[in-house]
UniProtKB/TrEMBL annotation:
GO terms for biological process: conjugation with cellular fusion. The chain crosses the membrane at residues 58-76, 177-203, 237-259, 289-310. GO terms for cellular component: mating projection tip; membrane. InterPro entries: Dni1/Fig1. This is Ca2+ regulator and membrane fusion protein Fig1-domain-containing protein. Residues 1-29 are annotated as: Disordered. PANTHER family: FACTOR-INDUCED GENE 1 PROTEIN.
Amino acid sequence: MAASVVTVEADGPSPNDVEVISVPPSPPRSRLARMRSKLRLRGRFTASDLTTFKWTHILFLLNTTAIILWSVLLAGCRTPSLHNLALLTLSYNPAPSPSPSPLQPNPSLSGALLALATPSNATRLRAIAVGFTATCAHLPPDAWTCGADLSATTVTLPADSDPLNLLWIAEQYRTGIAWYGLTIIAIALTGIATTLLTLGILWTPDADNRSGSDEGGSRASSGSERRFPTKRPWAEVFARPIFVLMGLAFLVSFISAIWQHMASAATLTLVTALTYDTVEGGVGGAAMALAWVGALLALVSVLGTLLSILSRQMIDEIDTRSND
């Protein structure tokens, strides 16, 4: 950086006499210092406020999206339009081909089961979709019926439409294996964290702790200008509780997702094997995607909150060194 030249008119009778003073260049400032200086001149934000503003709104979006995904997952199979959001689907195999094995001491059982599980196409139960809170049945000729209790539907079905009692098996899976309590806990924890996050965004401090100027203090105390979270509210009051809550939400949602995935896959394998391939099915891909994406968003929120805490500590350390 070149030296600055200042021209000063000398005192005296002759106005043509001038004195040239060479001013040494000021030391170069870091990029962070220049940004902080510009932000202070505006009188609205500081560098840490800008960082908090960015992260808090991104974290708010992540948490809200995770809550929406988990809520949609719990609503799966409540109505016919949501029958695709199933944890497990079961249906009769239209062309079963059981293969005898040396491990089967009674190979004739598969043939008897095959003869039993071949109802006519006109009366056959098309498919069953199982969700967390309800079950959907695809009844002949082409209609979906859904609800938490399909007992009335079972009574009205023809005797040969569900020879292997798949509706009963699906209900046993839903009530005995698929448990949605962990998902509700994850939603509650994320909701509390999001509420704290909102309080952090809307926090208006009584005074600017980082500025000793009377002007800044008068702006904060008057309340005429809403400020984003400063050092004390976000870093000390909200960030750490949010980090703990989102960490628990991620842990609970991860356990719920892996339990949901493994339980559905294991149930499908057992039903297929015990019916000698006369029943087929699948693990609900859409429901699994909702569970895993929600857990992933919770993890990103945890890492983002941790990054906010660490960046706040780094800025505090820089301020301490610069003051020393």
